[in-house]
Amino acid sequence: MRHRRRRSWTTLALVTVLLAGTGLSGCSGDEPTGEVTILASWTGAERAAFDAVLRGFEAETGIHVDYQGHRDVSQVLQAGIERGRPPDVAVLPRLNDVQRYVNEDQLRPLDEIVEGDAGAAAQVIRLARKTEPVGPQRAYAVAVATHLKSIFWYEPSALSAVGPRQPPATWAELVTRSRGVTAGGRVPWCLGMSSPPVSGWPGTDWIEDILLHQSGQAAYERWTRGELSWRTGPVRDAWVAWGDLLGVSSSPGTARASLFTTWADAGSGLLTAPPGCYLDHQASFVLRTYRDAMPDGGGPVDFFPTPPVGPSETSSLQEVSDDVAALFRDTGPARELMAYLASEPAQRIWRESSDELFFSRRAQSDDYADPVVARVARRLGTGTLCRDGSDLLPTAVATAFERAVLVYLQDPGRLDALLAELDSVRRSVPPAEYMDLGCEPAAPPTN
């Protein structure tokens, strides 16, 4: 692992503090020089890892951090805004929330905070206010953590026991393997849609990933901008491909059972004896679930990338999701914290305190000792990264999408009616609520 002393963020934070007219010391031996509040949803082991990052910030700056953890960040944040008391910084659960708050003039720009840190460039999210008065494009959020979604997990010895030794390399092979496991009286997919308070998103991940690898980048971007109908063409094709792979019509039992199974419980079936399932389509954060499911804290899991679904070569495209931090109150301590969260030293602490289960856009694969984890990091630095479609969609559309997934798995015959409803919601949402963020080439990390 690389261990570099923090230089760039400290210098930059000092500059921004001087510009703000507030004198803040960066020496850990000084008395506390301020306080900053941050709102996020992390609990348990994730909260503990993030706490280590905040302790590093406090030791370096003398600024006290008040962490406010809530599962429903959006509701708590909105209540704070309405009372005129938002947190200084918030880690938003959905990227589209950033656009909404920019439109409402609730966020403070970050240009001066991040421009001095070259390694942060890949993490910066630049948007323009899309309501009157329309504003210039500026930095309004930083992706402090990134999760790889275009991957399938498996346990090598279990999967090779029910088919070829090598994992599927094409979509046709994936379909064949899935049907072969089913024909043998086993359950191929670790399928769980329950995730209170927002169930259904594991299914939207599936459809987004298939859409991306079946119809390509241009179609995916048009869909996230609200320009593509749900009822015909690429979007409907993705639903059909998903249903065909899962066998929702011919073998509906697993699909319906998934409505009452959490994604974490479903994924644990990958490592039971005998296996409860053989393949799991889930983001890289599921690694913690796998480790928790093994008595020794680790598991012999591996992954393969989502293969092209159609004739086009789409293997370089990868769906990712980001945890993004944004600035709601423009104070010196808050600016220091934003600069720190984007910095390499902070993300190194996060990586180490999470047992290597933290990924960011600036981490390098040789930062990780575990070879499987290092491969995840390597993929985040290659190809083209396309952000999670549901995170980009306006809240009303994303909510309807999640509900439609649940209804479809219970009654696949309603697909066309569900897509018509989604189209109706799409048309009812003003264009200003959609985001213009497209896919981006992965930038080789610069520490």
TrEMBL record:
Any Pfam family matching the protein: SBP_bac_1
Keyword Signal: yes
Alphabetically ordered keywords of this record: Signal, Transport
Keyword DNA-binding (UniProt): no
Signal peptide: 1-25
InterPro entries per the UniProt record, alphabetical: Bact_solute-bd_prot1, SBP
PANTHER family documented for this protein: ARABINOSE-BINDING PROTEIN-RELATED, OSMOPROTECTIVE COMPOUNDS-BINDING PROTEIN GGTB
Family under the similarity heading: Belongs to the bacterial solute-binding protein 1 family.
Protein name stated in the entry: Carbohydrate ABC transporter substrate-binding protein
